[in-house]
Design brief:
Blueprint lengths: L1 H19 L3 H15 L10 E7 L4 H12 L5 H15 L30 H14 L6 H10 L1 H10 L6 H12 L7 H11 E7 L1
Antiparallel strand pairs: 1-2
């Protein structure tokens, strides 16, 4: 028993002395390494991507409507081009336009159609004013008119068909006729093909 303590006690004293005499920087390094080992790295999830149709060479109003149509769930380029073509034929995307070309406010348009869709019949023209009053919007503004366009019963009747991809321009044009009930077709299909040539897909962060 005496021999054990004679050997063990000096050895323990030596180990204790060595730990006590370690430089402070070495101790800090060891603590830092231990802390890093316990830290779990947090990886931010990648933002989902969204494919959007953009229109090269389109003006601000055209781009606004194109984005609104996609936000509404219409994704097929031919469907988008067809609706854009019809608005181009009706109003050139000018919201404060009265039939015949006069640039006036909603209340100053006394006869004929008004706005981007040239709302003509009393129920549709008055409906725009009532919708604007209800929502606090301006019936002469593009934003209010686009919202009203989506709100109208006539639009809702064709929206499902526009959201169905893979149709031809002629197919979508027939739906557009049910929506606008135009008297003169004009170059609507030509406009649709022109828009189609301007469209490109773009990947953006959603």
């Amino acid at each position: 028993m005496l021999n054990f303590f004679t050997v063990a006690l000096p050895l323990m004293a030596t180990v204790t002395t060595n730990m006590a005499t370690l430089p402070e920087s070495s101790l800090n390094t060891q603590i830092s390494l231990n802390s890093q080992t316990a830290t779990t790295e947090v990886v931010e999830p990648e933002k989902p991507k969204e494919i959007r149709v953009i229109c090269k060479g389109c003006n601000e109003n055209e781009s606004f409507v194109l984005n609104a149509l996609q936000d509404q769930g219409i994704q097929d380029k031919k469907a988008l081009a067809t609706i854009m073509a019809n608005i181009q034929q009706e109003s050139r995307f000018v919201s404060n336009i009265c039939e015949g070309g006069a640039r006036v406010s909603y209340h100053q348009c006394r006869s004929g159609g008004f706005g981007i869709s040239q709302w003509t019949s009393s129920d549709r023209y008055d409906g725009l004013g009532q919708f604007a009053a209800k929502t606090g919007g301006d019936p002469s503004s593009l934003n209010t008119q686009v919202q009203y366009m989506f709100y109208e019963r006539d639009w809702k009747m064709i929206e499902g068909g526009l959201k169905t991809p893979g149709k031809t321009i002629n197919d979508y044009m027939r739906l557009a006729h049910r929506w606008l009930r135009w008297g003169i077709k004009g170059p609507r299909e030509q406009y649709a093909r022109q828009y189609l040539n301007k469209f490109e897909y773009q990947i953006i962060d959603s």
